[in-house]
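ARCHIVE ENTRY
Sequence with per-residue tokens
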Amino acid sequence: MICKTGMLKRSRSMFAAAVALSLSVLAGHVQAASDAYPTRPVTVVVPFGPGGSGDLTARTFARYFEKRAGQSIVVENKPGANGIIGTQQVKSAPPDGHTLLMVSNMTHAANSSLFKKLPYDPQKDFEHIGLFGVFGVVLLVPANSPFKTIAELTSYSRANPEQVSIGHFNASTQIASVLLKSSGDMPIKTVSYRTIGNAFTDALGGHIQMVFADYPAATSHIASGKFLPVAITEAQRIARWPEVPAMAEFYPGYEIILSLGLAAPAGTPKAVLEKVNGWIVDGLQDPEVKEQLQKLGYSLRPTSVDGTRKFLLDESAKWAKYIKAANIEPQ
């Protein structure tokens, strides 16, 4: 007669062995999928227009990623609604790592306070992969502008109410514009553009007088001599433009820092996220990539998968304060 206790122990042992085997097989499949990834071209959706920081960064890394991935990397611009259109597209993509999103602390931090209801959850709908780095925003004027300093701008705008307009094209430059207006008590107008390129064109055409642009987008326009930098939004001056003052020198506490990184749809395997994160970390050490990003004004900041998620959570709280201080009502 077989002891019931023995049978029970044997059943438990067999069940445990079956579970272990199943987990082992599953782990093997996940590892195999990670080793094989990517199995076809990868699309990086940039939720902003051509010529901006997200676009320039994506194209810089695409060339490096292609060497590592052995597949083509397609950069696809999907601008509109402060990055919501492109972000929503990636949210609905298959979670297999073949569609990635260029994320910023605008799409995944500021937008939570700028909109009453987002069509995506910045944390629940995405797996965060890693950061490329951080940078600031710079206020530009055409080379023939009647004002070339904050003091001249303040004086001119107060003497000519509503005659000075600032162009902006996303949440960060919108907030920078509104904060400048309120901090300096300047009677100026802010004008929204779909892409930064349109704002530059209108500034050169005399339709607006100033443009707020992030460093990567502004660099070539400053180098061309067509635009002059008036002030930056970082807390202190930077080595790249040591003669350009920080806005905080005039308005203490004024600081706006931007970030860019990659994310994937929720459910993308952790092994794939770690693999792409490794490409980012290694890429930031590549001499060619490093030089290009530093020329664009980046402070390089490689982060882990978990570190990227925490960074964006912290940024959400920070941008909520900025938006409240700027008296911007959620749309």
